[in-house]
Design goal:
This protein is of the alpha+beta class and 585 residues long. Helices cover 34% and strands 17% of the residues. α5 packs antiparallel against α7 (324-331), α8 (338-358) crosses α9 (392-412) and α12 runs antiparallel to α13 (530-546). The chain is elongated.
Length: 585
């Protein structure tokens, strides 16, 4: 394994970081003194996606062989001389020399007979699965538990739907040949991936390697999308391509694999509605672009009744914040395909028009969020109010996006488009400044036209525009420096510490999110505060390192992973890489 792979291996604990493979849905984790094998599926908890309840390896004298080492390409059971690796994206291979045994507890053995080694997980990506053995000299089945014994041979677990049982017999039963080949092939895939890992400062190199592993580990293929590669937020909990996750993930990938970064934008941009709206999620079977795309049981819970403006019985568009131009700009100079960029910029322009035409729900010229999902900040206290919500972060994104679209139009010599985008940005900036509450010292969100009391990190994101009056910027910096607001021990919390809705653990109601910090790093820089920008970047990098990895979100009081946060989270990993490269320059 490469030096970067060795650095990443220090974090592979089979709990926060599962054993997996680029492009695979298979996850191997620790469970009850054994290993469990699950499949990553869209909108399904892992506990409902069990392929193998427990997998235990035994030594020649019958003792359980513990896991002794975990590397990106293999799990080692040194006491038994056995390793577990991948054999392509849809199979696992277990093998070793000497005498050893393996015990598998599987969900449901098929009735077809033990010779086929079939069982039925009954999952979308694995309706059936199978085991096949090279050189097994003993087999014992009790209920759903299979125990096989070997003398220097191997076992293959085929996970793909309709898998056959003969994949491991291609080497004519010669001991361990197929397993050795699987080990070499898996190592090559990971070595090729780590060869692209960006070079950063020595003190950031270990975590950068792990974050690069996270990005590779979170690659899945979407069969319903022609096998496209999506770097999902997390195989542990979020298996799909969410629009703004794709933007943040692309920002990190561009430093080592710009073509994969482009693939993320291709998926995010690939399924606009006729009106130009980009969907919230692209997944195996379609997209999530409306409340009507939700499972029926979710609609009553997620549709907010009683809004004075939005019709609760009508489909509600679901999207994500307009950071498409921000992400596209990040790839310029890294992907050499002018025609692709022109198509992408046209898609972004149509999406921007959709916001102003179809998401200005009260007709005042300022688009609103019609549903919490469209903000990405689902649980923020600004959504405790009546919908729709006008929020300063949305205004900032729209201003930035129109500014970037205007710059692109100027580059193309399109004076009319340049003028239109600049004029719309100016109008949105004026509307944003009307959100400023000078007495309270922050930008206020409003719900159904009523100002909201909640002070959250969205009130800081207008820094992204780089256009605010110095007086307002000064007040915002004072809020960032105030321990009662945003200067918590580990900053920046998503809700001000003095706000009655502040919670250090609850999603979007206080924890630190790396994407918010990364946007504020950029906002401080473009607002003329380069030193403060650098300081926040360094503090954010330290938070991830000291907190043990790129978690979904962090407790702002302790700096540790928040209790319910997902681990090995895609945008946290990608933005760590991006920030590490920036501060290392």
């Amino acid at each position: 394994m490469s030096a970067a792979g060795d650095r990443a291996a220090r974090y592979l604990d089979l709990e926060n970081a599962p054993f997996t493979f680029p492009g695979s849905r298979i996850l191997v984790q620790r469970a009850d003194g054994a290993l469990t094998v699950r499949l990553a599926e869209y909108e399904r908890p892992l506990d409902e996606c069990v392929l193998v309840r427990t997998l235990r390896v035994y030594t020649a004298d019958g003792r359980v062989a513990p896991v002794t080492d975990v590397l990106p390409d293999r799990i080692e059971f040194a006491d038994a001389g056995v390793t577990l690796t991948f054999d392509g994206p849809s199979a696992l291979s277990l093998g070793g020399g000497g005498r050893w045994s393996v015990e598998l507890d599987v969900p449901s053995l098929a009735d077809a007979g033990l010779d086929a080694g079939l069982w039925r997980p009954g999952l979308p990506s694995a309706a059936t699965a199978s085991w096949s053995a090279v050189g097994a000299d003993d087999l014992l089945v009790r209920g759903d538990t299979v125990r096989l014994s070997f003398s220097g041979s191997s076992l293959r677990l085929d996970i793909a739907s309709g898998a056959s049982a003969d994949g491991a017999s291609a080497d004519d039963g010669r001991a361990d040949v197929s397993h050795v080949r699987a080990l070499a092939a898996t190592a090559q895939v990971w070595n090729d991936w780590f060869a692209r890992c960006p070079v950063v400062r020595d003190d950031l190199a270990d975590m950068t390697a792990f974050c690069w592993w996270v990005l590779g580990a979170n690659i899945v293929t979407l069969p319903g999308r022609g096998g496209a590669r999506a770097v999902v937020p997390s195989k542990i909990g979020y298996v799909g391509l969410w629009q703004w996750d794709a933007y943040f993930i692309a920002a990190g990938l561009r430093h080592g694999d710009p073509e994969l970064a482009r693939e993320q934008l291709d998926l995010a941009f690939g399924f606009p509605t006729a009106a130009g709206q980009l969907p919230d999620v692209v997944h195996d079977d379609g997209v999530l672009a409306s409340s009507d795309d939700l499972p029926p049981g979710d609609r009553d819970n997620l549709r907010r009744a009683g809004s004075a403006i939005a019709d609760p019985t009508a489909p509600i568009p679901l999207t994500k914040p307009p950071l498409a131009a921000w992400a596209l700009r990040a790839l310029e100079g890294r992907v050499d395909d002018p025609a692709w960029f022109e198509r992408a910029w046209a898609t972004v322009a149509r999406s921007q028009d959709w916001w102003f035409r179809d998401s200005d729900l009260d007709g005042d010229g300022m688009p609103e969020y019609g549903h919490p999902y469209s903000s990405g900040l689902d649980d923020s206290p600004v959504f405790d109010a009546e919908l729709p919500v006008a929020s300063p972060d949305l205004a900032a994104y729209l201003i930035l996006q129109d500014d970037l679209l205007a710059a692109h139009a100027r580059d193309r010599g399109d004076r009319a488009a340049d003028a239109m985008h600049r004029e719309r940005a100016e109008a949105t900036l004026a509307a944003l400044e009307r959100m400023w509450d000078d007495e309270a010292g922050f930008f206020r969100s409003s719900g159904a036209g009523h100002p909201l009391a909640a002070q959250t990190a969205v009130s800081l994101l207008p820094l992204l525009t780089g256009r605010l009056p110095g007086r307002i910027v000064g007040r915002m910096l004072a809020a960032i420096d105030d321990p009662e607001r945003f200067a918590t021990p580990f900053a920046v919390p998503t809700v001000a510490a003095r706000d009655p809705d502040f919670s250090p653990e609850r999603m979007w109601r206080g924890p630190v999110w790396i994407n918010v910090n990364a946007l504020l790093v950029e906002g401080l820089a473009v607002s003329g505060h380069a030193e403060r920008s650098r300081a926040l970047a360094e503090a954010t990098l330290s938070l991830v390192i000291d907190g043990g990895g790129p978690h979904e979100y962090f407790n702002p009081l302790t700096g540790g992973k928040a209790r319910t946060a997902t681990t090995s989270f895609g945008w946290s990993a990608a933005l760590f890489v991006d920030l590490a490269v920036r501060v290392s320059a």
